[in-house]
Amino acid sequence: MSLRLVHQPVGGQAVLLEEKDRYLKLLQERFGRRFREYRRNWALAERRRYLGPFPLSLDLALNSGCQLHCPMCPLPARPESQKNHSLSPALYSRFMAEAQEFALPALTLGLASEPLLSPDPVKRVQEAVKAGIMDIRLGTNGRLLTEPLIEALIDSGLTRLEISLDAVEPITYRAIRGGDLTALEKRIHYFLDKRAKLGTVWPLLRVSFLRLPLNEGELKPFIKRWSKTADLIATQKPIWFPGSKLPKPPDKKIKTVPCGQPWQRLGVTHDGRIWPCCSWYGEKLLKVSATNLPIRKIWLAKELWSLRTSLLLNKPDPECLVCAKAGAF
After folding, report:
1. Any idea what DSSP says for residue 38?
2. Is the overall model pTM greater than 0.85, yes or no?
3. Which of 75, 149, 170, 254 is the most buried (most CB within 10 A)?
4. pLDDT digits (tens, 9 = 90+) for 135-145
5. What is the DSSP letter of 316?
6. What is the rounded distance in angstroms from the CA atom of residue 156 to the CA atom of residue 272?
7. Contacts of 304 (CB under 8 A, 6+ apart)
8. Count of CB atoms within 10 A of residue 226's CB?
9. Which stretch of DSSP H or E encloses residue 306?
10. Alpha carbons 227 and 74: distance in angstroms, whole number
């Protein structure tokens, strides 16, 4: 079994693998020089050597909640997560107008939430396509996928469908995520079959495996199971968050926090709060809101400049240090 390394960020928290050279090749063929420039800038931004006039990726929460109670997630322990609130269509449309104006390369739908709980995720994808975004990713636990929704997502212009599985054994999946792994895998294979019958490669399929005490020993079987069918496999190490049921890692000394996310991406919650990264620790770092400020101004605001400067000077915010110690680096 020989897999190709597609991407490994600083710290190695999430590693992307593929069996064939498909992901980057297909996107480069589809979008040409613009996509190559985006990936070059992404790599530079990861090393904090590039800062564009607009984020390279927007990570949006289409809603506030999730229907699962996974032990590695802090969301179930939060009282506010018991009610699912949606990002307003008007605010999303404003984001898409800015995305088109500044040629946003990438969009992730599903920041700290389950996007298929939102009223019309397919319409949100279609709006992103009209805005000219190249790499449109939807991250989901997959439990709400139905055959009609799968067909609509294939037809929507979505670039990547990313499904978190974390197991190969049904009993392990039930312990981590609850529910029926066999049923979910059948829906994934329906997606793959339908995509093939339509003669398209889009959206590409990524399956994810988060390494946990509960699934120890299943990573190699997971890779073996999906290496021939999924376009991308993500293996991730966990970050401990308050409210999760994972054991807190032992304290360790961290001299630097080599995080490049504030140069790459911007997260926005369903109610407009800004995260400078995709980590739950990022929710406390900024006090600005996208409900009354455009993304462009937030991206170049003094609060984000201050955060970036603190990282460059090796004087990171305490929340960044906690994140690093919790498993990010």
Report:
1. H
2. yes
3. 75
4. 999 999 999 99
5. -
6. 25
7. 262, 276, 286, 298
8. 23
9. helix 302-312
10. 30
